[in-house]
From TrEMBL:
Name of this chain's protein: Extradiol ring-cleavage dioxygenase class III enzyme subunit B domain-containing protein
Keywords for this protein: Dioxygenase, Metal-binding, Oxidoreductase, Zinc
Cofactors required: Zn(2+)
InterPro entries noted in UniProt: Extradiol_dOase_DODA, Xdiol_dOase_suB
Signal peptide bounds: none
Family listed: Belongs to the DODA-type extradiol aromatic ring-opening dioxygenase family.
């Protein structure tokens, strides 16, 4: 299995037919990945905990962790089965790789960083899904190493998806903008070039290496899922840009595929 980083952007991705990223995700099985995974592990920007945590549930609820959006969005459901065996496996792999404390959440379902893209990618909601949290008190290298610990899952038919946004500054969104602001464009371009060149260590230390890092990510939670997906593919993985679009002047929907290559 390849690993992926999906920019899920705004929650309106769930209903807005004008967003190119929506059509990209709806074509997922046809154009990106025909192979059906045995289960799916999502590292979502919208689950932050102090220590790594997996949701261990038989059935996933749909969490509406957004406010002030159209009422129709609160009626959407993504009733994917849980993946308790995968959750236990994730915990086992992390604890074997020096992540000494890994928690289990036996109530949490899927937040919109997981169910919004998945309802477009796999609308049947028949593949078991587990979520893994991010730790905003840690750094990019920590999350990259988390991904490296999870690499064996690829050989077990598990689809690993990091779900965030290539740029994410909610204070800088502009509904009336018809062009991309320079700082967002420059950060997004740096990210693409670094990924395609395999400069993963630069991305692990993006705060020092990337232009406008603080503007692009005032908080790191939407970027760390990239580090996990990147790490799970391995240091020799090849990155491929599989979708690119913009909305609201600063919000990049850039999404990447990581293919492991032989050493």
């Amino acid at each position: 299995m390849d690993t992926f980083y999906i920019s899920h952007g705004s929650p309106t991705l769930s209903i807005d037919e004008s967003l190119p990223a929506r059509h990209f995700l709806k074509s997922w099985k046809e154009k990106v990945m025909g192979q059906r995974p045995t289960s799916i592990l999502v590292i979502s920007a919208h689950w932050e905990t102090h220590e790594p945590t997996v949701n261990v549930v038989p059935q996933n609820d749909t969490i509406y962790d957004f406010y002030g959006f159209p009422k129709s969005m609160y009626k959407l459901k993504y009733p994917a089965p849980g993946a308790p065996e995968l959750a236990k496996r994730v915990k086992e792999l992390l604890m074997a790789s020096n992540f000494k404390s890994v928690k289990e959440d036996k109530k949490r379902g899927l937040d919109h960083g997981a169910w919004v893209p998945l309802m477009l990618m796999y609308p049947e909601a028949d593949i078991p899904v587990c979520q893994l949290s991010v730790q905003t008190n840690r750094d990019g290298s920590y999350h990259y190493n988390m991904g490296r610990a999870l690499a064996p899952l690829r050989e077990e038919g598990v689809l690993i998806i990091g779900s965030g946004s290539a740029t994410h500054n909610l204070r800088a969104l502009n509904p009336n903008s018809e062009s991309v602001v320079p700082w967002a464009y420059e950060f997004d371009t740096w990210l693409k070039e670094a990924l395609l060149d395999g400069r993963y260590e630069d991305i692990n230390h993006y705060e020092e290496k990337a232009p406008h890092a603080r503007e692009a990510h005032p908080w790191p939670e939407h970027f760390y899922p990239l580090h996990v997906a990147m790490g799970a593919a391995g240091e020799n993985a090849k990155a491929k840009l599989i979708h690119h679009s913009w909305s609201l002047g600063t919000l990049s929907y850039a999404s990447y595929q990581f293919t492991t290559t032989a050493t």
